[in-house]
Amino acid sequence: MLEATLQALRAKGRHLLVPYLMAGLDPDWLSYVDLVIERGADAVEIGIPFSDPSMDGPVIQRAGEMALARGVTPLSVLAELGSRSFPVPLIVMTYYNIFHHMGEERAVRQLRSAGVQGVIIPDLPLEEGGRWRDLATKEQLDTVQLVSPATPDERIDEILAVAQGFVYGVGLMGVTGERAELAATATTMATRMRPRTSLPVLIGIGISSGDQAAAVIRAGADGVVVGSALLRRVLDNQSPRQIALFIDELRGALDTTEP
User: Fold this and answer.
1) pLDDT class for 139, splitting at 50, 70, 90?
2) Which of 33, 185, 193, 196 is deepest in the core (most CB within 10 A)?
3) Contact call for residues 114 and 85 (beta carbons, < 8 A)
4) What are the E-state strand segments in the chain?
């Protein structure tokens, strides 16, 4: 379902925007989901807070800590998502221990009941994720795979063979966070993956501005995932208008850039 939606948008010539937001970071967090959708998000990545994140930098860590301090749990997040309907796909990102604790079958059912169409589990090794992928595929839940700048070409092909939804190209070696300048590896990732897959290729981690989003599109990417730059504005208590202007900047850059 996620893959079909993104493929259809790409077929129309649209470059894809997937903002990331941390679930439960304040009582009104779903209003930020509504806002980014209103301003042109094609899907929204929802972080489920986890106590020991391995991929997340200081901004996302802080947002997760705030959510955990409020008593947010995976099931409370899914209950909130399931209480609403959204006009674009939702993608959940969190760490495998949460789904292991819930039980994989139960986790898949809960995600789908909440309307989630995709999931990103950065610490689930390819060789150990077969059962998860089988269960998820049966329920039309796409498991998105990540590819890093350090991934050898042979390994990229192995990852792409099981990838679903879209391919998440990690823009740089390191944790999530804003960068003043786009890492050279971000454009390299787009160039390396584009000829290897028919799936949409999205670049994330380090994408912090419209200019940076445009650069990866020119390198061959189909879109971007933007997290820390957005969440930092939320944590700084910027107004909804200021946050909307940032999404407008990204959307405008994606809409006006030719590959």
Assistant:
1) very high
2) 193
3) no
4) 16-22, 44-47, 90-93, 116-120, 142-147, 167-170, 201-204, 223-226
* Catalytically annotated residues: 45, 56
Contact 231, 59 (CB under 8 A): yes
Nearest to 15 by CA among 195, 201, 168: 201
How many whole angstroms separate alpha carbon 73 and alpha carbon 50?
9
pLDDT over threshold 60, residue 178:
no
> How many angstroms separate the CA atoms of 117 and 108, rounded?
10
Q: Which residues contact 107 (CB under 8 A, 6 or more apart)?
A: 98, 99
Region of residue 220 (phi > 0: left; psi between -120 and 50: alpha; otherwise: beta): left
Give CA–CA dist 200/202, Å, rounded: 6
Task: Give per-residue pLDDT as tens, 45-56.
Answer: 999 998 877 666
Grouping H, G, I as helix, E, B as strand and the rest as coil, residue 49 is: coil
Question: CA distances (Å), 8 to each of 2, 18, 246, in order?
Answer: 10, 15, 25
pTM > 0.85: yes or no: yes
- Phi, psi angles (nearest 5°) of residue 92: -95, 135
